Amino acid sequence: MLSIFGCPVKTYSNKETVILNVRNNESNEIEKIKLYDYVQKNCPSLIGEKAYYYPTSWIGNGHAQTAYAAFQNFEGIHLIDYERKFVSTSDGGQIAVDWTPPLSNKPFDNTPTIVVLHGLTGGSHESYIRCLLEILVNPPYNYRAVVINFRGCAESDITSPRLYSAGVTDDIRPVISYIRKCIPNAPLLGIGFSMGANMLVKYLGEEGERTPLFAAASVANPFDLIGGCRSLERTYIGKYIYSPTLANNLKMALSRHEHVMKQDKRLDLKYVKSANTIREFDSRLTAISFGYETVDHYYRDASSSQYITKVKIPLLCLNAEDDPIASQECIPYDECIYNPNIILATTYYGGHLGWFTGWWQPTRWCIKPLSEWCIALLEACNDSNNKPFLNDDENNLSEEETVIDEN
User: FRET pair for 120, CA 20 to 30 Å: which of 70, 192, 255, 342?
Assistant: First the structure.
């Protein structure tokens, strides 16, 4: 139910969520607690009487929230100091990774680390990343973070004729392997935003228990790329504003690397640059570059909704129901409820990577539940195996056992 003062956070989960191993700070013994109960206890912005989102009244709908997130100047706030390294890929490419605090200030050690994946054409400079890391890497928590910048993003150069796609998890694996080698005993928690959330969830579903990440968060995940594309094209603002804007962002990214991309003789770059929608861009470049038969073949294969039941670590999925980019109709409610490792949280308002709150100089409300989740799971992490959950009969589930909490 909506309130005139805000909207409640609705959470969906299986009745028998995964069991966490949580160390009791007083007795130093390991105790067992269900994921849902642990989140309810430690994440008041997600579950409980305080789990409300109060949107900025003059940014009152999903379109306004999305526009404010895209066009507001966030320079000069949430400043994060990075140190950049590069990871080579098997095809001769490279991926830029940005560490914070800089390694010169904080050499590699066992500090718990947040691994971040950004959205389409984004990077470590994005405000939605910086405002979260500002909380987590500074006192009193002092965690470490590393942002994976997709090929050619965040002012990085490409060294092979290939960019990235929403489902190219082969680029995530070598980077996470590199991170694990750098900090072999540090707990790793992943968080992805928008397209990065889709890539992260797909990767987690493919890896299952093999992933070195012990927990994760997915924010504004589009989940179903075919459904999302159709949802965009169904409305005037989606077809003539959002889709062309996304296509233009991709074309701008391409233009910076055109001298390398022209080495791929399969691509007609002049034809690519004439694309007016994101579907046309993906049809003319992404699908061809990654060897798909059609653009729908690419969208189907890349959609993380088909992998979410296979995720084997605690995962928070946070979406706004009025998100015009990551449509509510694409949220895999049943699959999230089926998987005992997942807490799905939605708000009625928020737009795409918005969730602005406060009247003067609005801030992102979503940073509160996300930081609470990260801190709670990092605190729960069992130092002996870096994975605070048990794979035993206690975690078997029934598809019908469901918890839906709307405060």
Answer: 342
